[in-house]
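[job 0417] fold request received: Permease
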Amino acid sequence: MEFTVVFQSIIIITLMIMIGALLGKTTPLNDDTRRAFIQVIVNIAMPCIILSSIFHVEMDDQMFKMIAIVFGLSIIINLIGIGTGFLFAWLFHRDSNKIREIAILSGLGNTGFIGIPLCAALLGPEGALFAAIFDAGVDVTIWTVGVILLQKNRKFAWQTLKSMVNIPTAAIFVGLITAYFQLKPPGLLIDLTDRLAALAAPLAMFYIGMMIMTLKRGQVRRSVNHIWVPISVKLIILPIASIFMIHFFSLNTVLVQTVLIQSMMPTITLASILFAKYSADEQMGALTTIFSTLLALVTIPLMVYVMSLFIH
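[job 0417] inference complete; emitting structure tokens
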């Protein structure tokens, strides 16, 4: 992977976030605009990236085997991140009541909003497909381990799995079924999904830029003592641990690069919404998402460089 491509993608992402921040000045991010952005990104653009990737990748038994490997690695990396975050939170914030939030923020990355579009830009349709499968693993971790951590009684409830039944997950399922039976969609549908897929990255970055404009100085001062742990684990410790772990396996190069890039993603955007649902610290989730996203513009190229030293 050429560093010029990585830096160019990061620069483009930065510029799109800046445009979003400018939009946030004239059109403040309220419940209506937030809902509109999320609906278009999650229910239209991201499913189209997934379907477009499947339409443009040759699917065979070997590809399905690699998909299963990516899904398994996603679960493992997510759990390592959560466990590491829990350990660091216990070491540095032992008396805090934010340990469960820190653990979740440390392990779960923005593999959908940022990860899928970035992998599509850097690695093409195959990378986008693997990125979507990795994101599915993140969803499974969120609505099982994540929910168990956040619930007061620490019990698993089957109704939480309903949240995994969403349009991106359905797109993966439908796309893989059609690929398995070698059903080729009409060219018009392929062209439509390609065009709608291009919406994902700009809209996601605009949304993050608008979120930045909602920050208040007092909120930042109150939460900064807690957010450095999940940001450090998510952006530096977890990617390095993932690089060392995968270094010992002989896997497809695009698969390895996709999994490692996904491990470098900033904290998941869904965090504040998830925390609000389970009466956790919603503000801490939002601030960690925003600051980790901004810092990721620097750490992603750095981690890609570290990756290049081990993965050839």
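[job 0417] notes: The chain has one domain: 3-304. Residues 28 and 210 are 7 Å apart (CA to CA).
[job 0417] exit 0
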